[in-house]
Amino acid sequence: MISIEVNILNKFKAVLLVVLLILVYLLNTSSGDKHINSSSLTNPNLQYEHEEPLGEKLQRDNFSEDLEDSATESKLDEYIASCEKNIDDYGSDDHDRLNAYLMSLANSNSKEDHFNFAFFSPIDNEQQRLKLLLSYDQQYPNEPEVMFEIVRLCTTNEKSMACTGKLIQRATMSESSNGEMWLNSASYFAKHNHNRQTMDSIAKLISSNYFGNGWADDISRFLNLMRKLEGEYNSNHFVAALGKAATKQTQFHWIFNWCKSNISDIEIADSCFELGRNLAHRSKTLESQSIGLNLQNMVVDLRGESGYDLSYREQASQIQTSYNPIFVKRANLIGADERLLQNWLNDLKNFGEVTAAKNVVKQVLNRSENSIECP
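User: That's the sequence. What structure does it adopt?
Assistant: Structure tokens below.
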């Protein structure tokens, strides 16, 4: 059985630590002439359709000035301490009850039950999970969230004969306007060293209308399942949902390996740099944004600065100062209140992790200042 016991606070601390380590590396390797060659291969003024410029977003989202004074932090600490006792752990009994419910869905005639069984049934083997999703796809073909997960699993799975370029192409067509879908496609083709398909996927990502947030979708999906099982929200649902979402990661390392192996090819190097720019500007999580900054930095390190827009170095500094550590200390409270959790999820999907974090802190601060009872 899959263990879902996850400490929320440690999860956020771990993710933040990874992000900050990447940013520290970027800042430490950013010395030197920052002059941008006038014949730049990339456009530093490029605006992505329907996307807010990262610089403006970070300026809007930077909340370090108004939330870091000691009085504010002390007040928040007292409020959190009084509320944390209301947060339930996700224990073995909850886990067993959920698994029993999921196994009962195997023979259901309901499409929703088939979906939940394919996504969440208690199996450890990713190859088996892929088989369940492929079976679901045969009955209900081309559903975007199913195809998204199929592409991810095809990238991690070495043995499935079903994972072909034709399947990946069909999957991307199910939601071709979502840049995150094309990121999964690029990872798959990069793993197999299919240069043209990888570059085509990156090009489609760059021209896509929006960039989804699979992490937020995974959390929402599991929360909906728990509501159906128990009829109402419980604070331990968030613990379980965060644990489930944490098991699903985009396979960035295949793209890094592919870019590094082909860095002597100017077309591929430029494609990798533009992918990094897109991730830094458009993705919704700090982890993905930091990966994008690191990807740009790798290209510049290996090919030199000439011809590349080096503004990512300033962006790395801005991101490092925009994510308030108070949020990390308050993460446990998100799951204690369904309204707070839903607001956080909506902001996470629509505006990204920084804005979602900012708004959580402000809502908790407002509650503590107005002596609002704990959830």
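Confidence is low (pLDDT under 50) at residues 1-25, 29-67.
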